[in-house]
Amino acid sequence: MKKLIFASGNKGKVEEVKKIFENDKYEIISLHDLDNAPEIVEDGDTFEANARIKAEIIFNKFGLPTIADDSGLAVEQLDGAPGVYSARYAFEGCTYDDNNKKLLTELKNLPEPHIAKFVCCAVYLDEKNYLSSIGEVHGKIIKERRGTMGFGYDPIFLPDNFEKTLAELNLEEKNSISHRSVAFNKLKKQILVAERKR
Predict the structure, then answer these.
(1) In Å, what is the CA distance from 100 to each residue of 82, 96, 151, 179?
(2) Residue 33 catalytic?
């Protein structure tokens, strides 16, 4: 098994990414599995910039091939907000519920549908390669929270052509369409190609 560090402490993300890599002889190690994982300040102005910051800090500290991502929600009527600020949209250190409340408040007086998309940039870094990929899932924001299986904005995001929110889908269903799944599956193919070229 080849070890890959996933530069994330988000348990929901880690579970999703482990599922994506589980049949490809990779052991995914998260920041929870590492001693003395450094603090990471995500101060980039794009999803890729933030993902690369995470990957570089963790790779430089531990010297193992590292994957990282940054992702967020972009709402059309809010000019792409919350975007790179999705995790701290309400305020620094806020909860998922705080973010959902703020978003619904921002959209309260705007006409439906509230068209939106989740965007994820996933990156890979080792001593020879820097790889990146983008994944998106399109849908709309709904006013009532539904489901308990997701995290973040999942309970208020209804993907196109689905009657369930992301939080109502089980992990297998979510991984079949999610922005993170699209991005990491693309990235995994690039990693496998790079491995064959060694």
Answers:
(1) 11, 6, 11, 19
(2) no
